[in-house]
Structures are given as C-alpha cells and as structure tokens.
Amino acid sequence: MSEKLGCYLNSFGLSTLVLLTELVADENVIDCKEHYFLSGKELKLEKPVLSITRVSDTEYMIETKTLAKQVWLSTEIEGVFSDNYFDLIPGRPKRIQFFERKDGALVTGVTGSMDARSMYDFMKR
Questions:
Q1: Which residues neighbour 4 within 8 Å (Cβ) at sequence distance 6 or greater?
Q2: The model's pTM
Q3: Exposed e or buried b for every residue in 28-67, given b needs 16+ CB within 10 A?
Q4: Fewer beta carbons within 10 Å, N or C terminal of the chain?
Q5: Alpha carbon distance 75, 52 (integer Å)
Q6: pLDDT, tens digit (0-9, with 9 covering 90-100), for 56-110
C-alpha cells in the first residue's frame, strides 16, 4: 500500500473501517465482498441492534445501524437460511429466506421464533 494511501486510511481509524466492493452487471449485483484492514479481533465493534422484519411467511429483511460482523441466525424449527454467518453493513439491508426440513427435503417454511447474534455477542470485553 502506498504511503499516501496508508496515511489517508489511517485518518479514518482502521479498527472501524470496512471497504465494500460490488460486481455489477446490467444493474444487477452479481457479487459483494467486504474487506477489513485489520483482523477480526482488532476491530472495534459496537453492540449492533439487529432489526428483523418479516417480508412474507418465509422471507425476512435484516438490518442494522452499526456494523454487525458474522451474523448468525437460528430458529426453533429444523431447517436452513438462504444465507447465514454473514457481515451486515449499516444501510445495506439483507433479505433472507428460510427453508424448513420436512421428510428429508428442504421446503419453504415458517421459522417460528428467530434469534440473531453476531461476533459481538461472543467477544470477551
């Protein structure tokens, strides 16, 4: 990294800085990645307030006002989420779908109660 760029990035405080990149084609996001300038244990994370809104019986919108690193979703119903263990960036809501396991197959299903946790919940303070 050039010295000039390093000084510029340091002015923001690397422990709170994240670079978000998107690959876009025909106005559709193909892929999205986050880059952190420090290791996870060096990040200064605040306790995120995760807001979960039910969009339909099987879809949810999850958002936060502070960075939520490694969000983990769980429910009392056996099944899987379309995405789990992801980083949630402020101002970038994430749409998640739930698939219930029935008779060995995954079908769209209702989660019942749902819990969301992040890396912050497991950090030693």
A1: none
A2: 0.79
A3: eeeeeeeebbeeeeebebeebebeeeeeeebebebbbebb
A4: C
A5: 13
A6: 878 899 999 999 999 999 988 888 999 999 999 999 999 999 998 888 888 887 7
